[in-house]
Write a structure and sequence with these properties.
This protein is mostly beta strands and 999 residues long. It has a domain at 3-223 and 292-330 and 575-654 and 730-770 and 818-998: TonB-dependent receptor, beta-barrel domain (Maltoporin, Chain A), CATH 2.40.170. Helix content is 10%, strand content 42%. The chain has 15 helices and 50 strands. The longest helix is centred in the first third of the chain and has 10 residues, at 3-12.
């Protein structure tokens, strides 16, 4: 066979697939199979194995051909660009990436769907029960099915928004070697991938075995290497700035805040030698350290086999193993509003700096109800004589020895970035047997066990306790603690004043290990009894069975990670240990009612039910029972028209993180604070009055020292502290969803088909935490010192408190955002899929279109919270942007020896969430609106020599730049580098070359 014939053969195996992401729904796909292939077919959305039966729920299909044309390297890339799928944590996420990639169907949350391999669950990656897409062996994937809507009846809890089913190639025989290289137009971001797959049939076809190994490596792309992201931009002021830390150091303290001018603004003097004794400072630009593409390395192994022991019994097995390393890189550590005590005899403190501390005003201004100063008697902290005497008092026992308490903010720029290396080791093994009971009834029994271990090593962090210790020094060689490893710290000098010896003494590596185990057993009997309704040709089909699943997960942190002592780590990582198990009974039925009659070419109904009993491994043995069900049908009146509909009642059980997480302080996104009058950089917020009356009383009741009112800054870098807490008494959330649609395959237009489906999903008793805006609004919409929603917010207080919602996690609890069953979510929209293929004479032309219109996507954390609409909007509460309109169109011309394919991806316009405008103010200039974006990817595939095929791809052909909205208008995990890099292409034009050797 020559190379042209080989290429034709390769194309023929993927006949209608060059059309792009969307083939028709699962029913049409299944009906294309012959009965002889039934046992090899995985029909997504049902446990009934008969492929001749129509399904009522639409399934979006991405084929191996599409994966090859686009040269996708990981499964996340495939799913991220399907219209209706909202980008989740993945390779473009730098701050908030835990070393894994997830999928978020319909924007309902990455914890509300299930990822399957050949219709079977795989062990989750972490305590929230989510599967890491990095573990999917793409070299063996034949197609990817996405079924949205409640699928809990078929696949169990968690499938409340749907399932993603990766279907592997069956009975693979031969040798296939795939290699690819990818590089951006800037010459960075190299991605290399190599997969080798070998398979064979044996014993006259009674058995088959396949084995595949793969390797992948990706280089980082730094935000500092792109002009649009080189400087951090504030989304509301438009200023180039950064976080609320600086180099040089910044000090602030209610008891050390300086004099007041005629406007009541505290004034201090700065000597220009490397520190500021006021709230104002030069903001630190953290963008150049952050990355748009996380460094990634993966080794993976996949093996599968089957053997027909007898005519009635076949045994099968499958095993996966992968080891992934992901490195996240963020700006240097330091101290972020850390409360410290410093001797006035510190060896690095200059006389001018010392005098500045001694002259701090200790008498807070007294204001009237309008915020005007009515009394401001100046009282210095120390007299000049006391200050001079303290300068030479190096012994704490000396009666002249004095210290000053202050809040310190200083970036450890001399130390370099903070790096977290996440190494995940994953394996999942399955063993089963199946066979025939009768000619039409089959049985299938399997068990599987999997483990996923993620080890996080954190490097480059200052320890708050060591900073405090190193500042308590009265000579440059030793600390007052007497600790021989302590090196006195110079935070009074300019950038570069901190030596490597100082940095090394302040830091230590820490480790957090997360391990998840899952075991499952499932037994099914499916088929038909050969009996059919009198007006139907196909028999009534059924499936019955039982399933058992057991989950256990732990998070084990070293003492350093548990302490919350890491500067800028976002809080402590407590130990967590928990699990649960579930017993289930399952039943499904498909009833063809009328077939082959006028106006009723086919009328088929289907239904399913699943009963589950959960037991939580906790004191008192909390348990609960759930029942999920579905009902649907399809009607083909003729002329190539099919009308289909499906209704499902689904549940999602609480995961281990939601059940067993202890109370802990972490970070959340919040760009504004009603008690604040200063921006992050310490400058006044224009038009913002000083809190007075009830508002002032509430701010003080939350812990703000009275003297800080009028001097409180908004949360540092748009991140506030928040207290989170799990709850072992959480119950499952419930969902009701339905789809209704039409499929048209007209006889007069061979090769053409179109489907239009409306979906509607509503979730009640949702397990959620309030959004930061909900936590703020619950108090400040009706501020009162007796409002419980106000009193649960706790600010930076105490003698050195600054009244803000930022600071050390052990000292500032911040907002209170616990898990509860009080939430509601809902979404609805329309999916459109169109395919057309035609012989033009000189070439075959194929076009595939998949589009989505999302009507709404609402979230309400509690009955008293705002029912927040997020479709078409972005803000810190609407995390990953979800456009109203999105589509992908692939056009392919297939000549005798070459394919040329163009993919057009469209993302509809979006704007700042209206409620965010009220809460945080309007965004700066054009930052409050994102126009529609269009991306074009061009691919060419051809046979080079015998058995060798080459694919050349240019992604983002026109080098479209991402929209610029600043860094503080969205969630930190998705709003980074002044844009949303998971939604829009921040890397720019990319060139890929792939080669396939196939025998």
């Amino acid at each position: 066979m020559n190379r042209i014939d080989k290429l034709k053969s390769l194309k023929a195996g993927a006949a209608p697939v060059v059309m792009g992401i969307a083939l028709l729904a699962g029913p049409a796909f299944a009906q294309d199979q012959s009965p002889a292939d039934a046992q090899e077919i995985v029909v997504t959305g049902t446990l009934i194995s008969n492929p001749n039966l129509a399904r009522s729920a639409p399934v979006n299909v991405t084929t191996s051909d599409e994966i090859e044309l686009k040269q996708s390297n990981v499964a996340e890339e495939i799913l991220r660009e399907i219209p209706g799928v909202v980008p989740s944590i993945g390779s473009a996420v730098n701050n908030g990436n835990g070393g894994a990639s997830f999928v978020n169907l319909r924007g309902l949350g990455s914890n509300r769907n299930i990822v399957l391999l050949d219709g079977v669950r795989l062990v989750p990656a972490e305590l929230q029960g989510r599967f890491d897409l990095n573990n999917i062996p793409l070299a063996l994937i034949d197609r990817v099915d996405v079924l949205t809507g409640g699928s809990s009846t078929t696949y169990g809890a968690d499938a409340i928004s749907g399932v993603v089913n990766f279907v592997t190639k069956q009975d693979f025989a031969g040798l296939e070697i795939n290699g690819s290289e990818q590089l951006t137009g800037k010459g960075d971001g190299n991605v290399f991938r190599l997969d080798v797959t070998i398979g064979a049939n044996f014993d006259d076809g009674r058995g088959n075995a396949v084995f595949s190994v793969g390797y992948q490596q990706a280089d980082p792309v730094y935000q500092g290497d792109r002009k649009f992201s080189a400087d951090q931009l504030d989304s509301f002021s438009g200023d180039a700035g950064g976080s609320g830390t600086s180099t040089p150091s910044r000090f602030s303290n209610v008891n050390t805040s300086g004099l007041s001018d005629e406007n009541g603004t505290r004034q201090v003097t700065a000597d220009g030698t490397g520190f500021r004794t006021s709230s104002a400072f030069d903001a630190f630009n953290f963008n150049p350290y952050n990355i748009f593409q996380t460094p990634f390395e993966r080794f993976n192994i996949y093996g599968a086999g089957r053997y027909q022991v007898s005519d009635a019994v076949e045994v099968y097995t499958r095993g996966l193993f992968s080891k992934n390393t992901v490195s996240t890189i963020i700006a240097p550590s330091g101290t972020f509003g850390l409360t410290v005590n410093i001797p006035l005899s510190n060896p690095y403190m200059t006389a001018a700096q010392r005098n500045g501390f001694c002259a701090f005003d200790t008498s807070p201004a007294v204001r009237d109800d309008d915020g005007n100063i009515v009394s401001d008697a100046y009282v210095p902290l120390f007299s000049q004589a006391e200050c001079d005497a303290a300068a030479v008092a190096t012994d704490p026992n000396d009666p002249n020895y004095r210290t000053v308490a202050t809040n310190l903010s200083r970036r450890a720029t001399e130390f370099g970035p903070r790096i977290s290396d996440f190494t995940t080791t994953f394996f999942d093994y399955r063993l089963g047997a199946k066979g025939a009971i009768t000619d039409t009834i089959n049985w299938d029994l399997f068990g599987s066990y999997g483990e996923s271990q993620n080890i996080q090593i954190q490097r480059g962090y200052w320890l708050n306790s060591r900073v405090r210790e190193a500042l308590l020094a009265t000579n440059p060689d030793t600390c007052l603690s007497g600790n021989a490893d302590c090196v006195p710290l110079n935070i009074f000098g300019p950038d570069g004043s901190i030596t490597s010896e100082m940095n090394q003494s302040l830091s230590a590596n820490s480790q957090v290990s997360t391990q998840v185990e899952m075991s499952q057993v499932r037994g099914m009997i499916s088929g038909d009894f050969g009996w059919s309704i009198p007006w139907a040709d196909n028999a009534v089909a059924f499936a019955v069975g039982g399933e058992y699943r057991n989950y256990h997960a732990t998070q084990e942190s070293d003492l350093l990670s548990q302490s919350g002592d890491l500067g800028g780590a976002g809080g402590a990582a407590p130990n967590i240990d928990g699990g649960y198990h579930v017993y289930e009974a399952i039943g499904e039925i498909v009833v063809p009612l009328i077939q082959g009659k006028p106006f009723f070419e086919d009328l088929t109904l289907e239904a399913g039910i699943r009963y589950s009993k959960y037991s939580v491994d906790a004191p008192g043995d909390p348990s609960y029972k759930t029942t999920t069900w579905k009902a649907g049908g399809s009607w083909s009146p003729g002329a190539g028209v099919k009308i289909r509909g499906n209704y499902a009642h689904a549940v999602r059980a609480p995961n281990i993180f939601e059940l067993f997480s202890p109370t802990n302080v972490g970070l959340t996104n919040l760009s504004d604070d009603p008690c604040a009058n200063l921006r992050d950089d310490g400058t006044p917020i224009p038009g913002r009055p000083v809190p007075t009356g009830v508002l002032r009383d509430v701010c003080i009741a939350q812990g703000a020292p009275a003297g800080t009112i009028g001097q409180i800054a908004v949360p540092t870098a748009g991140q506030a502290n928040a207290t989170f807490a799990g709850n072992v008494n959480l119950k499952p959330e419930t969902s009701n969803s339905y789809t209704v649609g039409v499929v048209w395959q007209p006889d007069f237009a061979p090769g053409f088909n179109i489907s239009v489906d409306y979906y509607n999903i509503k979730i009640t008793n949702a397990i959620t935490t309030p959004s930061p805006a909900d936590g703020i609004n619950a108090c400040f919409d009706s501020p009162s010192v007796t409002n419980p929603a106000c009193l649960v917010i706790q600010r930076s207080g105490g003698p050195a408190g600054n009244g803000s919602l930022s600071g050390e996690s052990s000292e500032v609890p911040g907002l209170f955002l616990p898990f509860s069953n009080l939430g509601r979510l809902s979404t609805d929209g329309i999916d459109v899929v169109l395919n057309y293929k035609r012989d033009l004479g000189f070439a075959d032309w194929a076009i595939g279109v998949v589009g989505n219109w999302t009507g709404s996507s609402k979230f309400q954390a509690s009955p008293t919270s705002v029912n927040r609409e997020c479709v078409g909007y972005y803000s810190t509460s609407c995390t990953s942007p979800q456009p109203k309109i999105q589509w992908s169109v692939r056009n392919t011309l297939s000549f005798s020896d070459i394919d040329v394919s163009l993919l057009w991806r469209h993302i509809g316009s979006m704007k700042q969430e209206p409620l965010d405008v009220i809460d945080s103010g309007p965004a700066f200039g054009s930052f409050g609106h994102i126009g529609a974006k269009d991306y074009f990817d061009l691919s060419t595939r051809f046979g080079l020599v015998e058995n060798v095929f080459i694919t050349l791809t240019v992604n983002n052909l026109l080098d479209k730049k991402p929209p610029i909205v600043g860094n503080t208008i969205g969630s930190t995990s998705f709003n980074s580098g002044n844009t949303f890099p998971s939604t829009y292409d921040a890397l720019g034009r990319r060139f890929s070359v792939g080669a396939k050797l196939k025998f």
